[in-house]
Amino acid sequence: MTTPTADIGLIGLAVMGENLVLNMESHGSTVAVYNRTTSKVDEFVNGRGKGKKLVGAHTVQDLVASLKRPRKIMIMVKAGSAVDAVIEELLPFLEPGDILIDGGNTHFPDTTRRAKDLKAKGILFVGTGVSGGEEGALKGPSIMPGGDPEAWPSVKPIFQAIAAKVDDGTPCCDWVGPEGAGHFVKMVHNGIEYGDMQLICEAYDLMKTLLGLKPAEMHDVFARWNKGVLDSYLVEITRDILAYNDPDSGTPMVDLILDAAGQKGTGKWTVVSALDTGTPLTLIGEAVFARCLSSQKDERVEAAKVLSGPKTKYEGDPKTLIDDIEMALYASKVISYAQGYALMNAMGKEAGWEINNGGVALMWRGGCIIRSAFLGKIKEAFDKNPKLTNLVLDPYFTGELLRAQEGWRRVCAAAVTNGVPIPAMSSALAYFDGYRSDRLPANLLQAQRDFFGAHTYERTDKPRGQYFHTNWTGRGGTTSSTSYNV
Predict the structure, then answer these.
(1) pTM
(2) Catalytic residue at 208?
(3) Catalytic one of 18, 25, 179, 193
(4) 3-state secondary structure the chain
(5) pLDDT tens figures, 69-107
(6) What confidence tens digit (pLDDT) does each residue in 21-43 have?
(7) What is the pLDDT of residues 206-219, one digit of tens each?
């Protein structure tokens, strides 16, 4: 029997899997690899992995046999039933204390289920979010692990070695929490990513539609923004996209791409979780629906022939509008993160997870798609006050929103006046105005509910927690429904 030599195994040699293997190997790990199509194993080991500390396996049994105890196996296959199938295939060869790691974009309830099922069999399960795309996987991703805490000491050295590092060398990887907490935080990350991308697209559309700027001119704007408060990966790549011309025609590439967006579901999961926990995640919700509306391209083309709006006519100073758009983008981005953190707090309370908000901000500082300079300020906010109920209440972010709101309001007004859709920016402003209001019109809403359904209401002249019912028509009697919130 051969002596096990590999420190960790990985199943699934698509681009992300291959790049993670090369990253692990370059940081000192011997990695065993397996893929269902075994020719892919040979191609990789003799190609990109040639001369490196890799062990190719043609069966899962061979993979398991090549691993040192406790065995650590990372699964990089399509989320869903494929993960369950791999686990079932591995189980006969595993022993108590071995560790399985799901590094895909898995829906967090599936991770919670698997962690509980495998715990009963003595197997430690980790569900980890990995962000940064193909380049991040190779050069240093943001890694968000959660699951069975007993597994963390064994996987920590490998994960923190391959993760992105911030300026002081701190790795963008730390333990998130139990059960599906790691995949939940990755899901919220992806939801915020949806919001950030939509906000940037709205800023682009405002400059294109109201000011008639060409991509090259907008490249210059985004280049300047990337040196200020909006310094981030997504603003940086937008800058580069706007400068890229089609090699054949010389036309800006962005002008040749059809305006019909795709999505893989993580944004939708984020919004559904917000609905389940009663968290107003309005901006990310609008970002998801904006993609849905964009995908109805043929319908929109027909609707444009019959539905007319105002003639676009912006007569203000272009430089002032560009500065205002910068403030609208920045303030809306703050709201997006505030809503994302509010969702993490709500799920933490519901599931009994202790999620370190400052630690999450650090994990997102480097390697991941939403990495940005102001995440350092978010970490400072939660380090200063771990029980901060909403990011907008931190003194720094309160000041920033107050500084930005004048330009933010002018942008929303100009967009509405000229018929330019900005669903994410305008919903962010509506949330800001709703959150800062000590009175909302829900008193009338409660009266309506009580009128047609005897759902009861609380009174301003009575203590909270006491519920009342009015016989509004004189015909309803005194019977009322029980009061509850879904």
Answers:
(1) 0.92
(2) no
(3) 193
(4) CCCCCECEEEECCCHHHHHHHHHHHHCCCCEEEECCCHHHHHHHHHCCCCCCCEEECCCHHHHHHCECCCCEEEECCCCCHHHHHHHHHHHHHCCCCCEEEECCCCCHHHHHHHHHHHHHCCCEEEEEEEECHHHHHHHCCEEEEEECHHHHHHHHHHHHHHCCECCCCCECECCCECCCHHHHHHHHHHHHHHHHHHHHHHHHHHHHHHHCCCHHHHHHHHHHHCCCCCCEHHHHHHHHHHCCECCCCCCEHHHHCCCCCCCCCHHHHHHHHHHHHCCCCHHHHHHHHHHHHHHCHHHHHHHHHHCCCCCCCCCCCHHHHHHHHHHHHHHHHHHHHHHHHHHHHHHHHHHCCCCCHHHHHHHCCCCCCCCECCHHHHHHHHHHCCCCCCHHHCHHHHHHHHHHHHHHHHHHHHHHHHCCCCHHHHHHHHHHHHHCCCCCCHHHHHHHHHHHHCCCECCCCCCCCCCECCCCCCCCCCCCCCCCCC
(5) 999 999 999 999 999 999 999 999 999 999 999 999 999
(6) 999 999 999 999 999 999 999 99
(7) 999 999 999 999 99
406 is catalytic: no
Q: Which residue in 18, 40, 179, 186 is the catalytic one? A: 186
